[in-house]
Amino acid sequence: MHKAGFVNIIGNPNVGKSTLMNAFVGEKLSIITSKAQTTRHRILGIVNGEDFQIILSDTPGIIKPAYELQESMMDFVKSAFDDADVLIYMVEIGEKALKDDAFFNKITNSKIPVLLLLNKIDMSNQEFLEEQVQEWSLKVPNAEIFPVSALEGFNVKEVFSRIIEILPESPPFYPKDQLTDKPERFFVNETIREKILMHYKKEIPYAVEIDTEEFFEEENIIRMRSVIMVERDTQKGIIIGHKGSALKRVGIESRKDLEKFFGKQVHLELYVKVNKNWRSDQRQLKRFGYNQK
């Protein structure tokens, strides 16, 4: 008997969805920073066993959209309800319900199995944890509740085993050696964007998109050329920094991570270009993989 299915992870921003996804997959597929809206796309991570295939889906944190890019991000979340065989609703200890009532109602009325993961319990005590479990069992009565720490790995294996138990019988959807649905250039873009999220403040990280224009793999080295898109000339200056120092730091840190990811030497060239108001431009958003309607 072979089991296979889509396990879709949803929740508010910064609840640890990407940390959980990477823990399940055993690879760093989703970038992780402390800033909200780190995840912009829906990323699939595929975990294969002899008699199962779990297709995990990490989606953007649920927000009230303020511009076109955020509208597109919420479309990725909506799509996660459409094909899920198991729904993981992830909340942080002490957190309230989703800000979006429509999404919350979809969870509480779901006909598919719902696992509610109460994350970051390493930052709490037993008494408060028990209160939280009681509170969430009333809010989402159709869910099985698992206290977890995605970062520390607490209860992650138990959740993984439960997912396998409730997966439907099915042949695999993807080849057994496939790890994700995204192309290599996507992970180059995300690695660079992660460094920008880590090192720049205020609006800068949210005004940035990465486009890897060249990716040539040779026997011992991969040569890449990536462009950092910003919306204004002032942002371009900030990204580059004094005598190019800020951009150089992004390049060095990105290259180190990419060499680990691809398992070989990487040569990375970085450039910065102004692409005015790309976040509100339907054509540009489509080019960068958003607005897939």
From TrEMBL:
An annotated GO BP: ribosomal small subunit assembly
User: Where on this chain does GTP bind?
Assistant: 11-18, 58-62, 119-122
Keywords, A to Z?
Cell membrane, Cytoplasm, GTP-binding, Membrane, Nucleotide-binding, Ribosome biogenesis, RNA-binding, rRNA-binding
List GO molecular-function terms, semicolon-separated. GTP binding; GTPase activity; ribosomal small subunit binding; small ribosomal subunit rRNA binding
Q: Where in the cell is it found?
A: Cytoplasm; Cell membrane
Positions of the UniProt region annotated as G1? 11-18
Segments for region (G3): 58-61
SUPFAM superfamilies (alphabetical):
P-loop containing nucleoside triphosphate hydrolases (SSF52540), Prokaryotic type KH domain (KH-domain type II) (SSF54814)
Q: Which domain of life is it from?
A: Bacteria
A GO-annotated cellular component:
plasma membrane
| Role of this protein | An essential GTPase that binds both GDP and GTP, with rapid nucleotide exchange. Plays a role in 16S rRNA processing and 30S ribosomal subunit biogenesis and possibly also in cell cycle regulation and energy metabolism.
Which PANTHER family is this protein grouped with?
Answer: GTPASE ERA, GTPASE ERA, MITOCHONDRIAL
* Name of this chain's protein: GTPase Era
> From what organism does this protein derive?
Ichthyenterobacterium magnum
Organism taxonomic ancestry: Bacteria, Pseudomonadati, Bacteroidota, Flavobacteriia, Flavobacteriales
Q: Which gene encodes it?
A: era
